[in-house]
Amino acid sequence: MPGKPGTCRLQVRDLGVTLEGESILRDITFQLNCREIMALIGPNGAGKSSLFRSILGQIPYSGSIQFQLAGGYPSHPKIGYVPQSPSFDRGYPISVLDFFAAAISRWPVFLPVPGHLRDKVTECLARVHGEALIQKRIGTLSGGELQRVLLALALEPIPQILILDEPLSGVDVGGEHLLLDMLDEIRQKYDLSILFSTHDFSTLRHYADKVILLQQAILKVGTPGEVLHSPEFQAVFHLNLGEEGGCAQ
Ligand SMILES: Nc1ncnc2c1ncn2[C@@H]1O[C@H](COP(=O)(O)OP(=O)(O)OP(=O)(O)O)[C@@H](O)[C@H]1O
To answer: Where is each ABC transporter domain found (predicted)?
Structure first.
C-alpha cells in the first residue's frame, strides 16, 4: 500500500555531506511518507550508505532531516537499521539466541540465557517467521536467514522508520522474494516506512512505491517505472532494461 501523504513523514531538505574535504552528497531533498517503501539505487560510491548514516546521525551533514508525526508534530523517530550484511566465520560458535540476547539486553554471551530472555528472543524472531533459527549457529546461517535475524534485531523495539543497506546482497533469488514479502508484511502490520538500498532492479516494480536514483545528488525520483525508463538511469548504468526491467550485478 503506498504511503499516505499528510500523515507522518520523514522530510530531508538540502542535505549535503562532506567527508575529509570531499563532497559526498549535495542538494538531497526528498520525503518518505508513512507506510511507504522507498528504494535507493545508484552505482558503487554514489553515497547510498552515507545518506543512511546521515539520517542515523552517524556522520555530520548540512541541511535538515525532520520527522513529523500525524498532525504535523515534529518528533524524533525510532529508526531500525539493518547494516550491510556482516560475514561471520562459519565456525563462529555463537547461536542466534546468544547473539540476539547479548544484543538486546547486554546479557553476556558466555552465560546460559535465562527463560524470560529466551521468550523475548523467540517473540522477536517470530516477527520475521524466524523462530526455527533460534538454536542455529550464527556462522551457519544462509544469506537470507542472516538478513532475517538482523531484521528481527532492527525491529526491537518496533521503529517508525526501517533502513536496510543492501538487504538483498548475498541472498538467493527465492530468498529475495521471501525477504521483500516480509518487509511488505511488516510495514503494513507495524505501520512503518521503509528505505532500502539495492543493486537489484528486477524487484523494484513489485516492491517499491518510489525509487531514488542517486549519484552524489538525486538524479531522478519517481515510481520504479519512471526511474528505470528515465534517460538518467540509462546514462548512469549505460543500459536499457526494456519493458520489464532487469537485474544488474
Ligand atoms: N569516512 C569516510 N571518509 C571519506 N570518504 C568516505 C567515507 N565514507 C565513505 N566515503 C566515500 O564516500 C563515497 C560514497 O560512499 P558510500 O559508501 O556512501 O557509497 P554507496 O553508494 O553506499 O556505495 P556501494 O554501493 O559501493 O555500497 C565513496 O566515494 C566513499 O569512498
So the answer is: 10-241
* Ligand 1 nearest-atom number relative to CA 52: 18
Tally of CA atoms within 13 A in the half-sphere of 122 that contains its CB: 9
The DSSP symbol for 114 reads P
Is 42 part of any domain? yes
What total number of domains does the chain contain? 1
Q: How far is the CA of 216 from the centre of ligand 1 (A)?
A: 10
Pocket of ligand 1 (CB under 6 A): 19-20, 22, 24, 42, 44-50
- Is the four-CA dihedral 41, 176, 97, 189 of positive or negative sign? positive
Which cell numbers in the block locate residue 140? Answer: 551457519
Range of the domain at 173: 9-85+163-237
Q: For cell 528481527, what's the residue?
A: 152
pLDDT of residue 246: 45
The verdict on residue 34 lying in a domain is yes
pLDDT at residue 71, as a whole number: 63
Whether the complex's predicted ipTM is more than 0.85 is answered with yes
Nearest-atom number in ligand 1 for the CA of 42 is 21
| Atom 3 in ligand 1: residue holding the nearest Cα | 19
- Is 35 within the bounds of a domain? yes
Q: Are strands 210-215 and 22-33 parallel, antiparallel or unpaired?
A: unpaired
pLDDT at 158: 93
pLDDT of residue 72: 62
Which mean pLDDT values do the consecutive 10-residue runs of the chain (249 residues) have?
58 96 96 94 96 95 87 76 80 87 82 89 95 93 90 94 92 88 93 94 93 98 96 86 45
CA distance 9 to 19: 27
Q: Looking at the domain assignment, is residue 58 inside a domain?
A: yes
